[in-house]
């Protein structure tokens, strides 16, 4: 008999509890368990021979409760493995949820399980949580449910998430490295200007002679930073806040920044290759799951990670919907290398678009990996050069008067 809506709402969700008690030998024992409520947990512990004296709900904010994309990838892999082993869906959620270390992730999994127990399909339960499961994820799960191959599709989702997250990390590494160099250089320079240069200035006052122009310039810069530094920091902080605030709310600004980023030396080629890799990986995954090409293109657009490629993919979708071949639509964007276009063309003609786009994705993921490693090798001596010029320049400026005085004597 179908459950009524009131009965569905009445279903209680398992809650994580931390407990402490004594076993039959009087030894203090502690643990973590899931239960409908505190009374149910007490009864269960007594059946296990434990006399509980402390029971409290585990906060979802304890111990790094934020949910990261890597957590979703691991969850997808675990769930796919459980289903492939023949474990029922609800039981699989129970096992994965109870064994998760992050309270927030544990709560998310058990909430989804409760929805499924209430009669909601898996893709609908995931769709209620767009912060963690995007349209692509939900569409693939729905395709798996309809085809009766949920474990196979979840395995594809897990592989997709793992590869895309690995690619994102590589791109972040590429962007972080030059930023870190700039920040370290600025911090070292400011410390020298505020704390070291004034000591030399006091020493030079006793010389009674005119200082070299380079030394005087550094001293003037030091005085300026000491007097106006706080105001400069406030202005830069406000400008940074305004920049990120505007960027979040202005699509035109994001598009301009993304377009400029693609043209940057060293970083630009990495971002281009990353966007192509994401495009191909998502297209391969969606098409292999049986999602029609036109429908898949919208998810592919959102996964590219760059508004320029996103807009181009949506334009391609519109062209494909009117009967244009994907190869021709890609050529019209002017963004994709000839090799990519030709491989997609071969995939279309051979009816193996998922396989060929998967090969494109693998090639460009390796290209991004190699480019990031090459950039890291290039930047290591560059870091030493930048820091050497800044610190060495300040040191030379401070010792010039001493050298000059020694030459006169």
Produce a short descriptive summary.
The chain has 409 residues and is mostly helical. The chain has 16 helices and three strands. A three-stranded antiparallel sheet has the order 2-1-3.
The termini sit apart by 106 Å
Q: How much helical structure, as a percent, in the residues?
A: over 70%
Sheet with most strands: strand arrangement = 2-1-3
Oligomeric composition of the shown chains: single chain
Kindly report the average pLDDT value.
Answer: 81
Q: What's the shape? A: flat
SS-based class: mainly alpha
Commentary on this structure:
By secondary structure, the chain is mainly alpha-helical. The chain contains 16 helices and three strands. The protein has a three-stranded antiparallel beta sheet with strand order 2-1-3. The protein is flat. The N and C termini lie far apart (106 Å). The model is unreliable at 1-13 and 60-64 (pLDDT under 50).
Chart the SSEs and their pairings:
Blueprint: H1 5-10, E1 15-22, E2 28-35, H2 38-47, E3 51-57, H3 69-84, H4 89-98, H5 103-117, H6 122-127, H7 135-147, H8 150-205, H9 213-249, H10 251-262, H11 267-288, H12 293-303, H13 307-321, H14 326-333, H15 338-350, H16 353-408
Antiparallel strand pairs: 1-2, 1-3
Helix pairs in contact: 3-4, 3-8, 4-5, 7-8, 8-9, 8-11, 8-16, 9-16, 11-12, 11-16, 12-13, 13-14, 14-15, 15-16
Highlighted features:
about 400 residues, mainly alpha, three-stranded antiparallel β-sheet
């Amino acid at each position: 008999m179908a459950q009524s809506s009131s009965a569905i709402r009445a279903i209680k969700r398992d809650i994580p509890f931390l407990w402490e008690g004594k076993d039959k030998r009087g030894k203090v024992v502690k643990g973590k368990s899931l239960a409908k409520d505190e009374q149910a947990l007490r009864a269960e512990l007594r059946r296990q021979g434990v006399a509980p004296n402390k029971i409290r709900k585990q906060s979802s904010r304890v111990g790094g409760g934020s949910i990261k994309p890597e957590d979703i990838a691991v969850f997808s892999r675990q769930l796919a493995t459980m289903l492939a082993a023949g474990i029922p869906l609800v039981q699989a959620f129970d096992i994965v949820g109870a064994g998760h270390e992050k309270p927030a992730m544990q709560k998310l999994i058990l909430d989804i399980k409760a929805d499924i127990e209430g009669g909601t399909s898996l893709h609908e339960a995931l769709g209620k949580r767009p912060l963690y499961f995007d349209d692509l994820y939900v569409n693939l799960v729905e395709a798996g449910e309809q085809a009766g191959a949920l474990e196979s599709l979840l395995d594809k989702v897990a592989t997709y998430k793992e590869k895309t997250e690995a690619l994102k990390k590589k791109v972040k590494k590429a962007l972080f490295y030059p930023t870190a160099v700039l920040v370290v250089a600025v911090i070292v320079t400011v410390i020298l200007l505020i704390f070291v240069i004034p000591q030399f200035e006091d020493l030079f006052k006793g010389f009674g002679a005119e200082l070299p122009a380079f030394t005087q310039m550094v001293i003037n810069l030091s005085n300026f930073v000491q007097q106006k530094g706080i105001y400069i920091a406030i202005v830069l902080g406000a400008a940074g806040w305004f920049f990120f605030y505007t960027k979040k709310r202005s699509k035109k600004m994001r598009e301009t920044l993304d377009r400029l980023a693609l043209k940057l030396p060293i970083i630009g080629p990495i971002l281009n290759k990353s966007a192509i890799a994401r495009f191909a990986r998502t297209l391969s995954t969606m098409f292999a799951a049986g999602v029609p090409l036109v429908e898949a293109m919208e998810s592919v657009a959102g996964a590219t990670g760059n508004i320029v490629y996103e807009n181009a993919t949506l334009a391609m979708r519109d062209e494909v919907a009117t009967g244009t071949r994907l190869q021709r639509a890609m050529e019209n964007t002017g963004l994709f290398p000839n090799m990519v276009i030709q491989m997609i063309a071969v995939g279309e003609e051979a009816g193996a678009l998922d396989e060929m786009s998967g090969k494109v994705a693998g090639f460009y993921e390796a290209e991004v990996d190699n480019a990031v490693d090459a950039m890291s090798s290039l930047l290591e001596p560059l870091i030493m050069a930048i820091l050497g010029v800044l610190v060495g320049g300040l040191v030379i400026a401070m010792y010039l008067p001493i050298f000059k005085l020694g030459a006169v004597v």
